Amino acid sequence: MKLFCNFLLNTFDWSQKRRQIFTLSWIVIIIFFAISLRHIKTELRVYDLTDKNFPSTETLRKMKESFGDENSIFLVFTPKDLNQRLTTEEACAIKNWLQNQSLNNSEIIRITSPFDLRYVQTDESHLWYPKLLSLDCNSPSRATLLDLSPIHSTPWHRIISDEHETDLAIEISFRDTIHKTSFGKFDPAPIGLLLKDLNQNFLKDHPSITIHLGGRSAFQWHYKEMVRKDAFINLLLLFLIMIFFRIFYGTWKSGAYLVGTILVSAVITYGAMALVGHSIDILSNGLFFMICVASFEDFLFLSQEHLLKPKEPIVNFRSLICPSFFTSLTTMIGFGSLYLSDLQIIQRFGLWAAFAAFIEWLTMFYLLPLLQQLFRNAGLWSISSKAWKPRFIDSISHLSFGKYFFRVSLLIFFLSFIGFSHLNLDDSPRANFPSSHANSKAMKYLKESRGWEGSILVLFHHDDDKRNRELLNKISINENVDLIDSPYETIDYFTKNTDESTTRLIKQELSLANIVQGYFSKDGETRATIYLKSFDLSQINRTIQYIKEVCPPGYCEPAGEGVVYAEYSNKVSNTLFNSFILSLALVGFILIGLSWQYPAKIKIAILVSSFWGPVVMIGILAVCRIPLNLVTSIFASILVGLTGDNAIQYLFASNGKNILVGMAKRSHASTHLAILMCMSSLMFLGLTLVPMKLLGVLLFSGFLLCLVGDLNLLRSFTLRLSSEEELKALHPMLSLRPLKHQQDL
Fold first, then answer.
1. Rounded distance between C-alpha atoms, residue 293 and residue 283, angstroms
2. pTM of the entire predicted model
3. DSSP code at position 365
4. Each residue's pLDDT tens digit, 593-643
5. What is the CATH number that goes with domain 1-39+230-387?
C-alpha cells in the first residue's frame, strides 16, 4: 500500500511540475466531452429501457412488428360536473376538433373515436354499415343531451364510455419521430402540441368539459415534462453547496471550486455515455446526484485540512490523495459489482457510476490543484475566522454510546439482517405521480368510471377460434380481470343475426378495417386486451402468473408493456439488492486490508460500525414495509458506495496509532459531510415523482444512520477496546471528555 501511495504522490508532483501541459490537456478533454453531450439521449419508453433478451421484451418486439403498433394516447372528454352529460353541441365540437387534427396534424396516423363506430344492416340484396351515433352537427343544440345508449350494445361500451354513458374516450396514434431526437424513436413533443391546441382551441370555448390523458405514450409525455420541470433542482443543489461552504468554511470560493469539480465530472461522464451510445434512463438519471455525493466527501475532507492549514494547499492535497483514492475505490467496487448482473440496464448503471467515481477523484486531485494555483491570488480556500463553528458539531463528533445503548445498537444491527429476506418489492404506475398530478387524476378517473386501471395483452400464436374463446373465458374469471376486449366478441357483434354467406363477407371486409387490425396480425397471430382492476406490481405479477398457467406452453402468453414493466421492475429491484451483499463483502476486504496493522477486535469494530448504517436501514425498510421499486432501490447502491469511507479516512489519519487519533482529526469533516448530504437529499422532496420524494427521505435517513455507525458507534467500540492507560495517554491529544471507569463505557 505504501508503494502505491508513493506512486500517487509522484504522479501528483509530476502534474504540478507540468501545470501548463496538464491544464491544456484538461481543457481539451472537457471541450471534447462537452461537444459529445449533444448526442446524449434520454429513453422514455419501457420497451427501449429493457434488455432485448428479456423474454417479455422479445415478445413485445415481435408483436410490435407483427401488429404494427403505434405510439398512442387515450383522451377522455367528460363534463366537469359528473352528474351532467355531454350535450350534442359539445359532442359535435369534439368531433370537429378531431377532424381538424386528422386533416392538419401530420404527426397523427390514426384517430379511433365513438363517432366512427358502425353497425351492420342488411336486406335481401344489400349490406351496409351505418354510423352508430347519429349526430346532426349542422344545428346542434345545447339543450339536447348526447344519446350514447347505442354504444351500450357494443363490446367496447366500458372502454369508450363510462357506466352511466356520460363521457367519451378517444384514441389517437402518432408516428415515430422522423428527425433525430434526444428521446429515442418517439419524441412525445407532438403530444404537447396537441394538448396545447386542445386547450387553446377547444377547452377555452367549452369550459364545462375536462380532459383526462392516458394511454401508452401518455407516461412518456409526463416523464419528459417532469425531467424538464425538475431540472431546477440540480441548480438549487448547486446553490445550496455555495451557501453551505460560505457558512461552514468562510468563503464563496470553496463552494465555487466544488461546483466546478461537479460540473466537470458530470460533463465527462455524460459525454462518455453519449460517445458509446448509452442513453440516460431512469437509473442513470441519478448519476448527477451520485457525482455530487462523491465530490462532497473528498472536498469536505480537503476543506477541513485547508481550514487547519490554509497556506499549505499542495500539502493538503498530498496528504489526502491516497485515502481519497481508496474511498473512491470502495465506491467504484460497490457500483462496479453491478456489472456482474445479467441485466444490461444494471450493468450500464454500475459501469457509469464506477466511472463517475473515478473521474470525480481525478478531477479533485489532478484538476482542482491546477485551478487553485491559477486563482491563488483570489484569496484563501477556507477562512477559519469567517467560518461558523457551532457547538453541536463538536458534540456530535465526540458523542459515544452508553453501555445499554451500545448493546441495543448491536442487537439492532444483527436483527436487521433478517430484513433482507422480507423487503417489500412493489411498484405501481398509479403511485408514481402525486394525487394532484394529471396522470394520477386520469388513472383515478378510469378506475372510478370504468373499474379498471390499466391493461395487458394475451397473445395467441394460433388462430383457433373455439380454443381461444375457451382460454379467454378462463382468464376472465381471474379476480383482477375486469374486462376483456376480445376479437371474437367484436366479430360476433358485426355478424350476429346474419347468414353464413353474409358472415363470410363481413369478416372479409372487417379484415381491412381499422377496428379489427389491432386484433389480428399479418403473421396469423391473434391478441386480446385484458383490462385489470389493479395495476399494482404485485397484482400484475399474480395475473401474469395466472395467464401463464391457463395458456398451454407455446400456444399463448401474456404480453405488452405492462408485462415488460413487471418483469423489468422485479429483476432490477431484486438485482440491486442482491448486489448489496456482494458490495459490502468487497468493501469489507478493503477495510481489512487497510487496517492490517490493527488487532482483530479493532478490525471487527471497523467492519460492524461501517456496515451498521446500511444494514440497519434495510431492517427499517423491512419493518415499515416501505415499498421499493426501480427508483427507491437506488438508495441501497448509494449507501453501499459510501460504506467504509469515513473509516478509511480515520485509518490514514491515525497513521498506525489508535484510530481515535484519526477520528479526532477527521470527525468534524464527517459530521459536515453528513449534514450536507442530508440537506442535499431533501432537495428530492421538490421533485415530481413520488418515488423520488421517498428516495430523498430514505437517503436522508440512511446518511444519518451511516454517520451514527461510522463515527459514534466506532468511537464507542474503540473506547471499550482500548485500555484505560492508553486512553489516558491519548486524552490530551484527543480532547476527550472526562473518562469514566472502563466498565461504565
1. 16
2. 0.85
3. I
4. 999 888 999 999 999 999 999 999 989 988 988 887 767 777 777 888 888
5. 1.20.1640.10
